From TrEMBL:
HEAT repeats: 66-103, 105-143
Protein name: PP4R4 phosphatase
Disordered as annotated region, ranges: 568-632, 679-718
Sequence ranges of Low complexity compositional bias: 595-606
Biased composition (Basic and acidic residues): 584-594
Amino acid sequence: GVSNAWLETLLAVIEALPKETVRQEILNPLVSKAQLSQTLQSRLVSCKIMGKLANKFETHIIKREILPLVKSLCHDVEYEVRACICRQLEHIAQGVGTELTKNVVLPELIELARDEGSSVRLAAFETLVNLLDMFDADDRSQTVLPLVKSFCEKSFKADESILVSLSFHLGKLCNGLYGIFTPEQHLRFLEFYKKLSTLGLQQENGHNDNQLQLQTLEQEKKYISVRKNCAYNFPAMVVFVDPKNFHLELYSIFFCLCHDPEVPVRYTMAISFYEVAKLLNSGVYTIHKELVTLLQDESLEVLDALVDHLPEILELMANGGENSGSESKLLSIPDLIPALTAAEQRAAASLKWRTHEKLLQKYACLPHIISSDQIYYRFLHRMLTIILTNNVLPVQKAAARTLCVYLRYNRKQEQRHEVIQKLIEQLGQGKSYWNRLRFLDTCEFIMELFSKSFFCKYFFLPVLELTHDPVANVRMKLCYLLPKVKSTLKSPSDKHLLQQLELCIRKLLCQEKDKDVLSIVKRTVLELDRMEITVDACIFSTIVFSKDILRKLASILERQINSLEQLEKDKQQNEGRSTNNNDKMFEKRRRDSKTSSLLTKSITLSVPGNSSGTSAGKEGKKSKLVRSQSFSTQALHPKYSNIDKCPNKSCNTGYTSSISGVGKSCMLSFSGDSFRTHSNGHNGNGTLPSSSSSRTLFNSADQKNSGNKESQSRRMSM
């Protein structure tokens, strides 16, 4: 025992050791330890170490230093050594590559397959099966296949342990040699598999005597192992015969294995059932009876193995057959619902609560398989009963979550209201504090599976009522749940619910007497203060839209103010360049048009030009200048002319009203005034109101709107 423990440690650390260390400390002493003169234990240890070293060194080192030792051990006088080195040939072949495997390893395997020791032949057979991928088609057909055929033919005459190994590797063997089988050989191997699948089920003549009872018991154990291995290899045999031929070739064997009298065989079939269903695809409807059989199996081990992939199996059953319509889902599986309910009741009656919990979790897939009414009448009330009566907490939570899934997919409003009412009355307002705790668990699942509005509509206030619960554990669990409860609220539509939540928290802080609950309440209050309430999407978008409008309006007004300032500078520069005659004529025309502009609220623009028409560019420039002067004198009130001169700190409060005033003046100037141009022959007469007239215009408009100015500035600032 000590020696084997150190050997396992050495084999484990070889992977991490440097090559030079392995070569000096392990490989060099191994040459002497593997000699025939050493003890049997020493040679067995050398065999195991060689298999590990084969993947550590390069091919030329293995060929020069390890392969000679391997050949020597393959011809050892002790069958234990030959069997041990035979099992290491798989690792050695992977280390030396395909060419050396064909030239060196395969001849040794062929010789060992004909060894006189049954354990050596068995090791050679298993190694050949594992190395099938490294042999080409010629080696498989000319060398491997004859050995396998002779091995199978002699297996029934030899020890039953060979049958156990052969049945375990048969699926891999049949698929590995599939391409070189003739139809006759294909049929022969299929019949051999069928014979192994029913081995021990038929009583043979002469085996019922009492004198052979002990021998028969030993054989029966081996036969059970053979049938279990056949169940393990069943998906591989489905591939071997092609799923299209399943009903004709393998269905009878599938039926026998699912109804086998031994639990290990049925357990293995339950594990393999999903793989078989996937392979059959559209033909999965042919095995629905066996699904019902395994669901009704008396052994919970079989049920536990089947439940692992039950949602996938049921989905294939519902959608995979020829009749895959929504109305005909259960027509092909009429006994499915009774089998599912019976399986749950059988699991509930046992002491294996983990199987019951797993089954309830997997039953959450049923809304995708069967109709809403069938779930309501056959499963939903059963889940509520489990929550109320079962004493195992994980089972109750699994039932609560599955019930919430059923409620989510229920299509009838009346049924949903009925279930919600029962949850509130029987759990939330139940006499047992244990039921009230389960109500909080159910609410947590509802927040996970449903929308926030659904929870707020039906469960928000019933949850808050538990703040007055007489049991401290209920109030404590509620405090832990309050952050999630608050996260379901939206502002401002749920403002009244938020007020109720704050009121309940105040009552807890003021009236709570239990010190543990009070400490949790204080921590919860701090966590709630850090939380932000979700804003309704429509209101949030309106706020964002309003902010965008205000930002754009402010930027437009700022650009207008800057442009007005630039236009005034240009006007001053152009006025200095004009002649005295033009200035006098300009002032005269402006005084003449002052009265008319106040009455008609219109501006007639024209620029005096040269009669010869040689300075058209100057006329356009002066026309723009006159328009700029009119805009500047009417758009900007004198009391807002020094906005930019205000210091930042003193103008913070008046900035918004200034912007509003500018906005109103701009709107007045654009709406109240019109721009027209007239030309009289060669000479143009231009009229422009004076600055005083423009101020008069603005003041009249300002006085007219003085009542709305304050409210408009307030709206602008908001």
